[in-house]
Design goal:
Helix content: 25-40%
Distance between the termini: 42 Å
Strand content: 25-35%
Radius of gyration: 25 Å
Strand order of the largest sheet: 6-7-8-3-9-10
Oligomer: single chain
């Protein structure tokens, strides 16, 4: 089922949760709503489900305006962060609940319900737990049962609100792979809310980046990561180094430090934000080189074949912190020491014209 939202607006008292949000969700896609807490992603999900009403705007389900349609009639499956399973019911009874609550004329027989429930438990690979109670399950198992219960009523769209947020990191990673595989089997239109960038980039077909009730960018995981449209997107997705500077004749002046960089779109004298990922910074130990950002090595952390170097800015970058990612071989050849004075030269910089707006989420 395709979903469209047109010019959605929602306020809670003085707080604006959504500002003119318009999006298309094609049938069969798995889409992530990604952003910091309070950005409006859960409000948007609840409006699509019919659990909240927008102040203005419309929700179109499969070409029909469903803005005034009751949640029970939207055929939406909803999975919450904290499972919301009935503690006094077995796994089997939890999954069967939605089927048994159907009106008598559309309610399946007990034999049909039993078959449906066992089929779903096999789908989520937990049929052997049918007689257990939720308290006897792990967090990951409970979340899979919650998903089976949502699928039992054969929803046209599946909505998941921080589905793995209450789980530990290892279980979250396992369930992310499992959800992607399950979606590829079912091809049900699915939208999930997360503030975990890795989760969104790993699982989704498309990612919707939101901030302060507005959509910042929509695209595939590769597009939003490699071609960020705004400073917020660049700063929110992955580790990043932020430089506040001014364009001077093809160079970037950061405080007292000059960084060679040709950027055709940046006007001479313009104030800009410049971003570089940790792997896009080179550490220069040669004291005779005077270009680049002056910095002091703070910490050197080695993890297997990679080394992360944390640095503090000096001169015009005093108070800023930088991060450089090196191979173990590069780190060994540099022979860095804590307290050592170096310079940072970016191999690539993404420059945005500075506006009168916070650079929300950018690393400092």
């Amino acid at each position: 089922m395709s979903i469209q939202v047109n010019n959605l607006n929602k306020r809670f008292g003085d707080f604006t949760a959504l500002k003119d949000v318009s999006l298309d969700f094609p049938a069969g896609e798995l889409v992530a709503l990604l952003g910091p807490s309070g950005c409006g992603k859960t409000t948007l999900l609840r409006i699509i489900a019919g659990l909240e009403q927008a102040d203005r705007g419309s929700v179109i389900l499969e070409g029909e305006d469903a803005s005034g349609t009751h949640v029970r009639e939207r055929q939406v499956g909803f999975v919450f962060q904290h499972y919301a399973l009935f503690k006094h019911m077995t796994v089997f009874e939890n999954v069967a609940f939605g089927l048994r609550m159907r009106p008598r004329k559309t309610r399946p027989s007990e034999a049909q319900i039993a078959k449906k429930v066992h089929d779903l438990l096999e789908l989520v690979q937990l049929d052997w737990l049918a007689d257990r109670f939720p308290s006897q399950l792990s967090g990951g198992q409970r979340q899979r049962i919650a998903l089976a219960r949502a699928l039992a009523v054969e929803p046209r769209v599946l909505l998941l609100d921080e589905p793995f947020g209450a789980l530990d990191a290892k279980v979250r990673k396992e369930l992310r792979r499992w959800l992607r595989k399950l979606h590829d089997e079912l091809h049900i239109t699915s939208i999930f809310v997360t503030h975990d960038q890795e989760e969104a980039l790993e699982v989704a077909d498309r990612v919707v980046l939101m901030d302060h009730g507005k959509v910042e960018q929509v695209g595939t995981p590769e597009e939003v990561y490699n071609q960020p449209a705004t400073p917020f997107v660049y700063g929110f997705l992955g580790s990043v180094n932020l430089f506040h500077g001014r364009v001077e004749s093809g160079n970037l002046l950061v405080g007292d430090d000059l960084v060679p960089h040709a950027h055709d779109d940046a006007q001479h004298g313009s104030e800009v934000y410049a971003f570089a990922r940790p792997h896009e910074l080179e550490i220069i130990t040669d004291s005779s080189i005077t270009t680049g950002i002056a910095a002091t090595v703070e910490r050197i952390l080695q993890f297997g074949n990679s080394t992360r170097v944390e640095l503090d800015g000096v001169n015009g970058s005093t108070g800023q912190h930088f991060e450089v990612l090196l191979s173990a071989e590069q780190a060994l050849s540099l022979n860095l020491q804590s307290g050592q004075r170096v310079r940072l030269l970016p191999s690539s910089l993404k420059i945005f014209q500075r506006e009168n707006k916070a650079d929300g989420g950018a690393a400092q």
